[in-house]
Specification:
The protein has 274 residues and is of the alpha/beta class. It has helices at residues 22-33, 46-54, 56-63, 73-81, 92-101, 119-130, 149-162, 175-183, 198-201, 211-215, 219-226, 228-258, 268-273, and strands spanning 9-12, 15-18, 40-44, 67-70, 109-114, 135-140, 166-170, 191-194. The strands form two sheets. It has a six-stranded parallel sheet, with helices on both faces. Strands 1-2 form a two-stranded antiparallel ribbon.
């Protein structure tokens, strides 16, 4: 596992989520970029956590990440219940902008991998309009399936040719987590980020919501109203099950910490010999 030591972690149904806020997250990324082959960064939400319950490979992908940020208030609330009081939400789209804005990462060469036809190129134009000094080394709009060996070799060649440092991946969860875990040692970049819907957010395909909606944990509802046909099954399947399972986990943790220490009873023989 590629990680830094002394990582405070929240346990969300077996997924280890870094209990951090945005400033500490950026510090961690800066430290990771100083290492060779630092690995990848995941943005875990309710959907990803529930996919990890169903697929052991997804769970391993989260466990092997160099950094797993809490992309959703339910994960933050779980961390707060586990005494991680300074933990805050770090959405994938927000993290992408903060990395591009941070002066410590100036000079890095970024590669955009994801989105439908034309989306990565549009994202490149959008990001350069906001951050003219950012270096977008290249883009790739992959098919909605696993890459063939030939396609993977072509991606490797593009990354080598463009001398990319950072690979931004927006191919939805859990495909992006599996992609990063499977190809971490093969793709020649310093760090990979799985940022989910960031490509659609930053090209205007998905409208963002107000900060208070995010803090209330209702961004899923805002998304559902925009994409009901695509998302209703996901939310119906995941949200109630997440609340139920996390509730049981927190109850078990509370009962475990509340149990008094058991003092062994003194044997009658020992009492008589005193």
């Amino acid at each position: 596992m590629t990680a830094l030591s002394n990582r405070p972690l929240a346990d969300v149904l077996g997924v280890s989520v870094d209990a951090i806020d945005m400033p500490r997250c950026l510090d961690r990324i800066a430290a990771l970029l100083e290492k060779s082959g630092a690995g990848y960064v995941c943005a875990a939400g309710v959907h990803g956590v529930m996919e990890a319950q169903r697929d052991p490979e997804v769970l391993r992908a989260y466990r092997d990440a160099a950094l797993t940020v809490p992309d959703g208030m339910p994960l933050v609330w779980t961390g707060w219940m586990q005494s991680h009081s300074t933990m805050s939400r770090i959405a994938g789209p927000d993290l992408m902008l903060e990395v591009l804005r941070d002066s410590r990462f100036r000079g890095l060469r970024h590669f955009l991998y994801g989105g439908g036809p034309g989306v990565a190129q549009q994202l490149k134009r959008s990001l350069l309009a906001r951050f003219p000094a950012v270096k977008i080394a290249g883009t790739c709009e992959p098919p909605y399936r696993d890459l063939t060996e030939e396609e993977l070799m072509d991606l490797e060649a593009q990354l080598v040719e463009t001398r990319a440092d950072v690979l931004w991946i927006g191919i939805s969860c859990p495909r992006q987590e599996l992609f990063m875990a499977r190809h971490m040692s093969r793709l020649p970049v310093r760090l990979m980020f799985g940022v989910g819907a960031a490509f659609d957010f930053h090209t205007g395909r998905i409208r963002d919501c107000s900060p208070w909606i995010k803090q209330a944990g209702l961004q899923w509802l805002h998304r559902l109203l925009q994409e009901p046909r695509r998302l209703w099954r996901r939310y119906l399947r995941n949200n109630p099950a997440f609340v139920y399972r996390v509730g049981l986990q927190l109850l078990r943790e509370r009962m475990t910490t509340a149990q008094p220490a058991v003092v062994p009873a003194e044997s009658p023989t020992a009492a008589k010999t005193r």
